[in-house]
Structure formats: structure tokens, C-alpha cells
Amino acid sequence: MTEDAPVVARGVNHWFGAGEVRKQALHDVTLTIPRGSFTALVGPSGSGKTTVLTLVGCLREVQDGSVRLLGHELKGARSDALIALRRRLGFIFQAHNLHESLTAIENVLMGLMVHGRADGPTERAAAAHALTLFGLADRMDYLPANLSGGQKQRVAIARALVGNPDLILADEPTAALDRESGLNVVDVLKRLGQTRGTTTLMVTHDNRILDRADRIVTLEDGRIVADSAPVG
Amino acid sequence: MSRLLSRLFGRLPIGWLQLTHSKTRFASAIAGVAFANVLVFVQLGIMNSMASATLRPYAFFQADIMISAPDANTLTEGGNVARQWLLQALADPEVTAGMGLFIANVTWQRADKALVLTTFGIDPALPGFLDPAIAAKAQVLELQNAGLLDRFTRGLPRDEAAAIRPQTPLTFEVSGDTVTLHDTFAGGGGFGGDGYMMVSDQTFLTLFPARRSAAPDHILLKIAPGADPERVVTRLGALISDKSLRIRTFEAAADEDLTYQQTKRPTGIIFGFGVVIGVLVGLVIVYQVLSTDVADHLREYATFKAMGYPQTFFLGVVLEEALILGVLGFVPGFVVGTTILTVMGRVTTLPLQMTASMAITVFIGTIVFSTLSGAIATRRLAAADPADLF
């Protein structure tokens, strides 16, 4: 199972700052996340959740230890290799970060065009399908300024999923959503895990999601202090 | 437009969509680039007109070689040349003809204003030294105090100029002498006078009694067909006793005059600086627009970075914006610049006009400075760190 796992972290340590203000954010984090699983990462503020997400998401350099993502070692990897790996990920941020000048469907299209695909009818149909999945069929040509907070977040989720990523990294994605929309998002993510083997690693405090997660990993002070289904 | 650009780039035209998202900001950016274009067009137009105005009087004559005083940096400046050098020059086997050229300004005091006419004293018996259009009318200059007037003289009503014909000549007084204008030719106001006048050397000496026939301003020479002017110039340099004289081909004299006007005269330097300032203004405007735009979209860019878009994608977006601003700013800049030059040309009779070469030069320059500004603005992209998004 470890060989097939999209995320394998071993003895990961990470620091921020330098000199006297240098602070260790992660201590010997070891974590394996199986393919298709839905893992919730929990812990108090400053516990290292976001650091784990950014390291796994190739957004920070691995300083110490090993992180294997989709079969590739991230420590010492070249930047073009990291960019190529990021294209296989789906990022959902706490803030939607939609492009204000692009309509909902255009924002979703950006999730396809990163793979070198053009703005064609097939791509538009795929983007429209992703938006429909999240109840935004009638909002496709709306600019973000004309969407509610929840609608924007759902567009951002559609953008993350439209490219069929191998791994979804999400940071409090349901914070801006109502109960029904939040559960719908979780259902979609779980269904993707079951049908396509898409893996989800999500930072959340939302109990509605924790109830449905396959596994809950708890971090405190940069250490894994609890793991509901430890692997590796 | 969005669809067109989408097909052109093979991706969403993000630069275009970003620029047009705020219509007011987009309009002011275009206006800024257009303003820079207008600045450059006007300055270039004036510089070009100075070149045209400088070279225009050379076009009145047909000569191969010109002998001038050592300090004759332009056609109308400098001391005189002794006519004896003309005779020495004619000793060269390939020099076929020579003519003394006299130049001075005549003030035509009219009721409303005084017109300054740059007046050329020529030998009407040697029409081969004149442009054919002027030569065809030069015979009348053999009459005492006869003149041919530049019909585009600044301040001279067009209908009045058009009425000057051999059958209906016009007279005016110059320092007690009456000059009779029998016909006109095409000239135009320059930076040194309002227009031009052609008279015979004899009339010239009447109008300027202090001048001597033995000392024209320049000596014009014609050489045998097929002869190499440069070689003749070299031979004349050895032949003529006064080694301080400037002996040049007529073409070289015109070029040196122009260079002097553009690089030594304050006006040329000022207009040259005007072009530089226009380019700098354009650079700063485009940089400011793009740099602000990049700063405003850092989070979006960081998101795209996280998604796996490479740096070249962002460079493409910023350069797309730069090119759009450059192209769209050029169009109104061209229209306004053309209008201003046309109006200024009419008012001053200076050869101020939009030329194809100016338009192409400014367009290419606009694209280059826009791209340069865009390239500088992309440095701010480094601040878009996707790790900060979490």
C-alpha cells in the first residue's frame, strides 16, 4: 500500500526563520496517505497543518526528511519537476482566490488549461459539467464579484477538480459554505476517491466533515499526536 | 475581441480581460500611452520638419560640388568665398561649370507684418544650376530687380501669391529699391525665414550694396557626366590654394548642414530631447499600469503558480497587456498626432506632416517600450508566493 500511496512523508522536519528567531514548525513527521482516501488534518492554529500541506503541495522546499509525492521524491527536486507535479494536484484554498476578471466558467477553464489544453468546446463542456456538479449551472458566465461567498468557493472547488487531479489539497474549503453545500462538496470528493482513486488531504475544523473522513490526523506543535488510522 | 485573442493565443486572453475589467483604468492607460505617442509624434514631426526645411533650399539647386568658407556650417551661415577659387576650380578638366551663389535675408515690410525672405542671388544665364521648375522661370531674372517668390511664404495670403504672374507682377520696396516679383516657385517657410526669393546676382548686389560680386557665399560647380565627384573634390583640394576652404560634394554639404542643425543647434538638441522625454513618459506610464496590475493580481497569480502555471505563462500575460496597451494607445496617438502636425504645418508653413516612416518608427518604438515596461513589471511577479495562499 505504501508503494501505491500518493503521499509518503518520512522524518520530516521543517524550520522557519534563521538565526535566533529560527523556529521548528514540524518535528519528525511521518505520514502515509493511501490512494483514494479522504484524510482530515486537524490541530490548533500553529500546529503545522498548513506547513504539511505546502510541503506536500510542492510549494515549499523540503528541508529535512523525505516527502514522496505521486512516486517522486520532493527533496532536492528541480523546480520544473515540482511545477509538473503541481499540475497533478488540485488546490482548494480557504479564500477562493478566483480571478476577478474571469467568469466562473473561465476560472474553471484555468484548471484545464494548465495541462496545455486550449479554450475549446470540449474544455468548456468539462468546465460546465464541473460547475453543474456544484449547483452553479446558472452562474457560469458570472464574474466573481457577482457571486456569493459560497458560490465563489464552489467555483474554486470546481476549478481544482476539473483537471482530474491525483491528489486534492484543501484548506478549510467548506468554511464559507452552508451545511448542504459543504456536505455536497465532501460527497463529491469521497465519490472521486471511490471512482477515480482521487486522494484528498484536507485541513478542517468542520465536524460535519470529520464525521465523514476516512481518517483524522491530529497535529500539535508540529508533531502528529493522533492518527485515527495510522499507516506506515 | 476576447474571442479573437483567445484564438490568437490558444488560451484565455487573461491580459485583455484583466485590462478591460476596469474600463476607467483601461481608458486612462490607453490615454496615457496615446499621450506619450503624441509627444513623440510632435517632437519627431518638428525634427523631421527641421530636416526638410534644412534640405529644402538645397533642392532649389543642381550642383555636384560646393565650395564654402571654413565657417560655413550651413547654407545660410558663414563667410564669403573669393570668386578667384571658382576660376581655379574651372582649371580642373572634369569641372564643366561654376556659379557664385549669394545668400542674404530680405525683409519685405508689409502692412500687417514683415516677411523675412531668404534670398538667393544666382546667375540667370546658368539655369543648369537650378531645379528645372525654377530654371524654367529664371530668364525673367535677367531684368533688373526682378525676383521669383516662394509662393508658400509664411504670412503671405495664398490668393495673393497665386496672383503673382509675369502678366500681373507684384512689387515691394526693400531699402529704397523696388523688387518686382514676376513669378513664383514652390518653397515653404523654414526656421530661418518665412520663405525664399530668387534674384539675379546683379539684383542681389543692388539690394545689398555692401556685398561684392567677387565674394559670393558659396561656389557651386558642375562636373562632367560620369566623373566621380569625390575624386574631383580631392583634386580640387590640392588645386585650390586656400586650404582652409570647405570643398565638398553638394550632397555632403546638405548632409553636414542637417547634422549641424540637429546636433549643434539648440533647437535640434531640444527636439531630440523631446523625443527621448516622450519615450520615457511612455515607458513610465506603461510600467506604472502594468506594475499596478501585477500588484493587484498577486493572489490570483500565486494561485495559478500553485496550480502549476510556469513563469513563462505570467510573462506572456504581462507582455500581452503591454502589447495591447501599446497597440491601442498608438491608434489615438497617431490620430491626434497627425491632427496636431497638420494644424501646426498649416499655421507655420513648416513641412510638418505625418509620414509613413514616422508612423512605423513610432509604432515599433511603442511596441518596444511597452514590451520593455512589461518585462520590468514582471519582476514584481516574484512576490507572488503560492505558499502564502494557505
Question: Could you please describe the fold and organization of this structure?
Answer:
The complex is a heterodimer of chains A (232) and B (390). Chain A has 232 residues and is of the alpha/beta class. In chain A, 32% of the residues lie in helices and 25% in strands. Chain A is built from seven helices and ten strands. In chain A, the strands form two sheets. Chain A has a six-stranded mixed sheet with strand order 6-7-8-3-9-10, with helices on both faces. In chain A, strands 2-1-4-5 form a four-stranded antiparallel sheet, with helices on one face. Chain A is globular, with a radius of gyration of 18 Å. With 390 residues, chain B is an alpha+beta fold. Chain B has two domains: 2-54 and 266-389, no CATH class; 82-244, no CATH class. Chain B is 51% helix and 16% strand. Chain B contains 13 helices and nine strands. In chain B, α3 packs across α9 (250-263), α3 runs antiparallel to α10 and α3 packs across α12. The mean pLDDT of chain B is 89. At the A-B interface, α1, α2 and α3 of A face α2 and α11 of B.
What is the ordering of alpha helices and beta strands of chain A?
A: EEEHEEHEHHHEHEHEE
Largest sheet of chain A: 6 strands, mixed
The count of strands of chain B amounts to 9
Radius of gyration computed on alpha carbons of chain A: 18 Å
Main β sheet profile of chain B: 9 strands, mixed
What structural class do you assign from the helix and strand content of chain B? alpha+beta
- Shape descriptor of chain A reads globular
Beta-strand content bin of chain A: 25-35%
**Average residue-wise pLDDT of chain A:** 90
**Based on CA inertia axes, which overall geometry of chain B fits?**
elongated
What class, by secondary structure content of chain A? alpha/beta
What value does the average pLDDT of chain B take? 89
**Amino-to-carboxy terminus distance of chain B:** 35 Å
Overall structural domain count of chain B: 2
